[in-house]
Every structure is written in structure tokens, then in C-alpha cells.
Amino acid sequence: MFSGPPADPAAPGTAPGPTAPPGTPPAVAAPAPAAGAPFGGEISDGPSARPAGRSWTTPLLLCGAGALALLVALLGPGIAARGTGELRIPGAGLTTVLRTVLFAALALHLGELLGPQLVRPVRGRPRTAVRSWAVLASLAGAAAAAGQIVRLAAVSDLGITETYGTREGGLLLLIANGLVIAALCAASRRPALALAPLAVVIGAEALRAHPEAYSPEFGAALTVVHLTAASLWTGGLLYVLRTMWLWRGSPVAARALLGRYARLAIWLYVALAATGTASTLRRLPLDVVFTSAYGRTLLVKLALMAVVSALAVAARRRMLRDADPSVAHLLARREQVVLGLVVVVSAILTVVPDPHWISLRP
């Protein structure tokens, strides 16, 4: 639990307690909580108790969330397009999985570049840091981009070299190479150099997502801001939660870190709301909101974002009211889980057909 060290009864200035009568057996002190104990948890000292910190609840929840995300990614495009009359996208489920990995990798790496900037000004913080996942995340994202190139070659009946010559194939190749370079930067002594290749990745993804003839530059610019803000929000929150768990013995520092992230998250939320609204009004005709796969998927994303917003507001209120940030930490963890589903649904949005063709049908 977020709590400071117990007071030393023998410390100077501490009032002495009552003296026990002669012959009274000494009291047995209760065992101190283990350093790995979860927030608010108690450690049983019985012979059949499991070792401290060994709980199967969290791994099971993570496995369940991962299985749910995979199921949504595989089945989501087909369910969203059912009954719409839209063209079937070959391999839409696999493409959604690959794009989910790509978006998650981008969020993880950008979050690890943002996180230290939030940690550094915290006063009295422990001198411990979480282990970096940036290299593995970027390599996984590069593999996902390469997988999309292979899938595109198979669907288009082209060779890999010929696929590179297409617009989408060339952009995916740029994304894959950018993530590999970002991984190399993360493994170097100057990990901040990864900002440059990650910016190229975001720009290439924005261009890839907007091949339409109507003002693609404006749509790509909106996507750059939207994708950057979403990645910083999701990846930054994960970094903060991991750091707070590492600092669970320093509640003041952990609470200060969450407060710094919350202030930044407000601006990220504003950027997401503004660019998301503009992209929706630009891309989704109002008469096909309920009859297109894009419109249906967008409604699901909006519902999930409403849940994320409620959890974020609740976590901020508890953080301002309570000195112990454990409840706010729990709410923020739930926010992170829902954000993971938002990433999957966002990947589905990039796979389903453009809804304009429905409104233009005779």
C-alpha cells in the first residue's frame, strides 16, 4: 500500500508508552508488510499462505484482456460490416491485428519518451526507474508493418518487390524501417533520438490512412495530431502506472507523478476531441452513421471513450481528495484497460471501407 515507513518508537521526541508489569511476557510484533505487497493488501503469515506478491489475479486478468482484444480484432470488421452491403475486405481480421500491434508499439515507445519528462521534476522521488520496453515494442511494430506488406502482396497477387512500388506498400516499408531505426535509437545511449524516426512513422501512417482524392493533406494533418495525442495518452499512462507501482512505498512522489500526468492528459484529451470531431464530420456522412461499418465502429469507439473519460475524471477527483493515491491508481489502471480496447477499435476503423461510397451509390 502507498504508506510511509512506520514511526520508530525509540526515536527522539516520541512519547514513551505504558510500562508492562513485571513478569508479563513480551508482546510479539506483527510482521511488517512485504515490499512486494499489492496496494492495500495484507500478507498472511500462516503456513499455507502463498509467498508475498504471488497472486494469479493480475496475470489472469491480463490474459483475459489480451484474448478479448484479439477476438475483437479478428471478428470486429466482419461484425461491423454485417448487413451493410459494403465490399468485403480480404483478410480484414488479420490486418486489424497487425495494425493493433503497430499502434500499441507506437504508443509504448512514445510513452517511454514522455514518461521520464514527467518523472524528472518530481521531488523526493525514489532513484529507481522501470525497465524499458521501447526496443521490443518498436521491433514488434516493425514486424507488424512487414506483415501488412506480405498480406498486401498476397491479396494483390504481386511480388514483394512489386508491392514496394505501390503507394501503400512503399508507406508500409517506410513505417517498418522507421520503427527499426527507432529501436536502434532506444538501445543506444541517446534514446531521445528515436523521436525523429517515430515522427516519420506517424507521418507515413497518416498518409497511408488518407488515400482519398478529397483534401488528403488536411485529413493526414488531422491524423498526425490525433495519432500523436492518442499515443502519448495511452503510452504515457502506462509508463506512469508502472512507475507508481515501483514507487508504492513513496506515496507523495507517486501522487505527484500522477498529478503531473493528469494535467498533461487534459490537453491531450482536447486535441483528441477536436481532431476526432473534425475527422468524423469530414469523413462520415450523417445518413450512413448506422448503416456503414465505419459509422458503427465509430459509435463503439465513442462509447469506450465516454467510459475512459468517466474513469479519468474519477481518478483525478480521488487524487485531489485523498493523500493515498492507491484508489486513483486503481481507477487509472481500469482506464488503461479500456484504452487498450480503444486502440483495437481504432485499428478496425482503418480497415473498414470508406463510408463515402455508400452515400454516393445510385
Considering the chains and any ligands shown, give keywords for the structure:
362 residues; mainly alpha; 11 helices; disordered N terminus
| Average of pLDDT | 83
Please compute the radius of gyration using only Cα atoms: 25 Å
Q: How many angstroms does the end-to-end distance come to?
A: 63 Å
- Give the total of beta strands: 0
Architecture blueprint of SSEs:
Layout: H1 57-81, H2 92-119, H3 134-156, H4 160-164, H5 167-187, H6 195-208, H7 216-246, H8 251-283, H9 293-321, H10 326-349, H11 356-359
Task: Describe this protein's structure.
This protein is an all-alpha fold and 362 residues long. The chain contains 11 helices and no strands. The longest helix is centred in the C-terminal third of the chain and has 33 residues. α9 runs antiparallel to α10. The termini are far apart. It is globular.
Short description:
The protein has 362 residues and is mainly α. Helices cover 65% and strands 0% of the residues.
